[in-house]
Amino acid sequence: MTECPYCGNRLRKRAPDLEREGDEIKVRESGRERRRRQKQIRKAERAESLPKRRPRLRAVRSFDVGTRPVATISVLLASAVLLILQRAVPWSGSEVGAITGPVESEFWRYLAAPFVYTDLGALIVTGVAIAILGSAVEGRIGSLATVTLIIACGSGGMLAADAAAGLGLDDFLVAAGGNGVALGLLGAWLMLWRAEARSGIAEPLDVTGVGVIAIVLLMLPLVESSADPIAGVVGGLLGALLGLGAGARISASN
Question: How many distinct structural domains can be found in the chain?
Answer without folding.
Answer: 2
